[in-house]
Amino acid sequence: QERDAPLARARIGENFVDVRHRATRAAPLRAGRRADTVGETDRHARPAKETNMAKSVIKFIKAKNRKWETTKLPPKGKVSLGRDVDTDISSTIGGGVSVFTNCKMPWTVKYDEYFYGLSGTLTIRVGRKAYHIKAGDGLWLPANTKLVYEAKGTAKAVYVVYPVNWRQIEARKAKKKK
Q1: 35-44 in b/e burial notation, b at 16+ Cβ within 10 A?
Q2: CATH number for the segment(s) 63-177
Q3: By CB atoms within 10 Å of each CB, which of 41, 63, 82, 172 scores lowest?
């Protein structure tokens, strides 16, 4: 209890994630705990695994340098994705910026997905329910949700997907079915 007191007090004035991160890294390893940070060792002096070292890089994307992939939709719509985080640097999550313009696109998400509205209104219809995402709003969608993305005008949102390699997973499933 005494050990957790500074953490509990710190949660009041600081971002919880940052405090938890610092506390995890600063805490001594307890018996039986595995090493999870490169450079740490567990009680058996085994080092942390370095499985994702090639992907453990920081990537900063200036807005003007973002690379966009655009899909045109009939009659005059389009969806553009700026994939900031993809399989090239992450083995877990993907994300970036999405721009929906005058579109109505049915889709089934094969991954967990989160949207955070930046501008405009992105409407996501799931069954008979419509979620209107505006600046500052967030929406979580679990894998295998059938939906329709809609935008009248332009809507911009941050998106995050998990797992990042959902395309490869779906391709393997399709191959097994053959």
Answers
A1: beeeeeebee
A2: 2.60.120.10
A3: 63
